[in-house]
Amino acid sequence: MNLSIGIVGLPNVGKSTLFNALVKGNLAEASNYAFTTIDPNVGVVEVPDERLAELAEIEKSGKIVPATVKFVDIAGLIRGAHKGEGLGNQFLSHIREVDAIAMVVRDFRDDKIVHVENKIDPKSDIETVLTELALADLGSIEKKKSEIEKLARSGDKKSKKILEAIEKILQALESGKPASTANLSEEEKDLIREFNLLTIKPIIYVFNVDESNCSENPADLVEEYELADFVGKDQTIVISAKIESELANLSDDERKEFLRDFGLDESGLERLIKLSYKTLGLITFLTAGEMEARAWTAERGAKAPEAAGKIHGDFEKRFIKAEVVGYDDFVKFDGWNSAKEAGKVRIEGKDYVVKDGDVVYFRHG
């Protein structure tokens, strides 16, 4: 699956600077004025995974193919975006196309970079963006309601169920809460998926801080700015876009030393991707052989045939069985053959739930 994350926020909070650092290039223009980004910039980033190099060495693989994440740098939102202010309608449509939202929140001080509201106030910034997303959803869902009501009155059973879901969503939005809090059943979530609501998407809050604060605990910022009512501590991450920009041009050894100087074990990119996987409920399973060592992304809870389908649709349709060994055992016993001799390779059927770090060989018709 191709995971996509939209980088959003108010103008001049460091979105494009962070995006350029993530994709290790200057694809997005970063300037000190609002609406520098109009058309979204898109960059595909490899997911760091040290396990692949180990697998490739053991299996003498010809190449390494990591999983990827697509980042979309979306123009800054302002108050009134839901009504079209600041090209708001165009920007909101870009957000509808991504799987998750990374909301960049400015928490750095720089007199040379103008804040669109002339103050550094993370709580106010977050509330502004969330309000615009909610108002956009409210307008969208009210239009859908009119259409669905006509079908429901004609006796269409599916439309009646959709209408019940819409009522739950409206109740949440009208009380100032996102659609994700509407307590929808799994069936209702599937029924309204085509509406592509903004506030039902998972949100990661990225605090863009000064270099001196890059190792700060995100939970402390949630407490400091009194955000606990609408921002979960496990939804937040602290990044210095300036540091990430400098890291982008360093070798691996230089990067490690640079991070140690700031008291960090890993880059902001690595932490953001890990949090994105967790937020979206994703796992990585692995394949390894002479041709390649490769990482694949699947939803947590995916069964073997579904995971096989990530490799090729026919693998899912013609699934027979899966040979599975945990990554640690694969490395410990030096590959497939020795792991099989040690009894560590399991034969799993259609009901097997694939786990993160599974090394898998799918057999199919």
TrEMBL record:
MF annotations from Gene Ontology: ATP binding; ATP hydrolysis activity; GTP binding; metal ion binding; ribosomal large subunit binding
Protein residues bound to ATP: 12-17
A GO-annotated cellular component: cytoplasm
Required cofactor(s): Mg(2+)
Residue stretches in coiled coil: none
Magnesium listed as a keyword: yes
Taxonomic superkingdom: Bacteria
Domain OBG-type G: 3-259
InterPro entries listed in its UniProt record: ATPase_YchF/OLA1 (IPR004396), Beta-grasp_dom_sf (IPR012675), G_OBG (IPR031167), GTP-bd (IPR006073), P-loop_NTPase (IPR027417), TGS (IPR004095), TGS-like (IPR012676), TGS-like_dom_sf (IPR023192)
Keyword Transmembrane annotated: no
Occurrences of domain TGS (ranges): 281-364
A Pfam family hit: MMR_HSR1
Keywords from the UniProt entry: ATP-binding, Magnesium, Metal-binding, Nucleotide-binding
Family that this chain belongs to: Belongs to the TRAFAC class OBG-HflX-like GTPase superfamily. OBG GTPase family. YchF/OLA1 subfamily.
Function comment: ATPase that binds to both the 70S ribosome and the 50S ribosomal subunit in a nucleotide-independent manner.
Xref: HAMAP family: YchF_OLA1_ATPase (MF_00944)
Protein name in UniProt: Ribosome-binding ATPase YchF
Species annotation: Candidatus Berkelbacteria bacterium CG10_big_fil_rev_8_21_14_0_10_41_12
Lineage, uppermost ranks: Bacteria, Candidatus Berkelbacteria
Record gene name: ychF
